[in-house]
Amino acid sequence: MQFSLTHDGSDYLLSIEDEDGETSEFTVSFEQLDLISEAIEQLLDADEDDALSADDDDEKD
Questions:
Q1: What angle do CA 4, 14, 48 make, to 5 degrees?
Q2: 3-state secondary structure string, 25-54?
Q3: How many domains does the chain fold into?
Q4: pLDDT digits (tens, 9 = 90+) for 16-30
Q5: Residues of the chain below pLDDT 70
Q6: How many angstroms separate the CA atoms of 6 and 13, rounded?
Q7: Which one, out of 6, 21, 29, 43, has a CA that is 20 to 30 A from the CA of 58?
Q8: Which domain range does residue 56 map to?
Q9: Is the pTM of this model over 0.90?
Q10: Nearest Cα to 28, choosing from 47, 51, 5?
Q11: Burial profile 40-49: b = 16 or more Cβ within 10 angstroms, e = fewer
């Protein structure tokens, strides 16, 4: 799976390829990309916190 992001005039073209090799393309604005990046950051931060909690729990056992 891979993705690409290219500048397309005043917008951006976000292409996402799935495991089967099929590609979906989305035209997104700067504001939409900003919201996507914030959502990704929040999710990754939460996952990192969960992983660190699990590591702490493992050390206590």
A1: 75
A2: EEEECHHHHHHHHHHHHHHHHHHHHHHHHH
A3: 1
A4: 999 999 999 999 999
A5: 54-61
A6: 5
A7: 43
A8: 2-60
A9: no
A10: 5
A11: eeeeeeeeee
